[in-house]
Amino acid sequence: MKPRFLVIMLGLLLAGTLLGTLGTFSLPIGSGISQFWPGIMVQVVGGIWFGGWGVLAGAIFPIFVNLLSGGGAVHVLGFIPANFVQGLIPALAFRHFHMSPRIPGRRGLAFYALWGAAVPSAMGALLGVTALVLSGEADFLRDFPRLASVWALANTFSSLLLGVPTLRVLTPLWEDADLLVRGYWL
Question: Which of 5, 93, 101, 172 has a CA 20 to 30 Å removed from the CA of 112?
């Protein structure tokens, strides 16, 4: 592994762990799900900026978040697929449609709202809450709709609130660094 990618991974792991832990302790609603979880911003923007390395970091840092917040094995292992798709979907969408990581006006904002916020949050919610149901921590009929909708809405809101300004303001700093903007897939 090249030093640049090690720095990228460590930076994303640290940022995600700090933001995710802050969200987990801020507005919890039970079963390890929070009403405000800014860690998704690191998954989405990390996936768009850094490709496979960002997606990998986005799938790993929730392990530290759940360990720090006292999450059990289900939270540590069960949320990995959910967090993986929350970074993978926007990374693939931005590459598939050949869009720049910059948000170019209304069209770019609508694209990000769909592929950087709503779709990844919904898929992450379905996978994450499914892990809770399969482990017996949540009841399918009673808890699944509430937990899945709160997870999806909270992550969509967090991704829009934090991801849009991050991509708009900070991305131009990296425009000349070819690997950082286009992403480097494992």
Answer: 5
Q: pTM here?
A: 0.81
Q: pLDDT per residue over 7-57, tens digit each?
A: 888 888 888 888 888 777 666 566 566 677 888 888 898 888 888 888 888
- The domain that holds 144 is classified in CATH as 1.10.1760.20
- What range defines the domain where residue 118 resides? 3-182
- 3-class SS string, the chain: CCHHHHHHHHHHHHHHHHHHHHHHHHCECCCCCECCCCHHHHHHHHHHHHCHHHHHHHHHHHHHHHHHCCCCHHHHHHCHHHHHHHHHHHHHHHHHCCCCCCCCHHHHHHHHHHHHHHHHHHHHHHHHHHHHHHHCCCCHHHHHHHHHHHHHHHHHHHHHHHHHHHHHHHHHHHCCCHHHHHCCCC
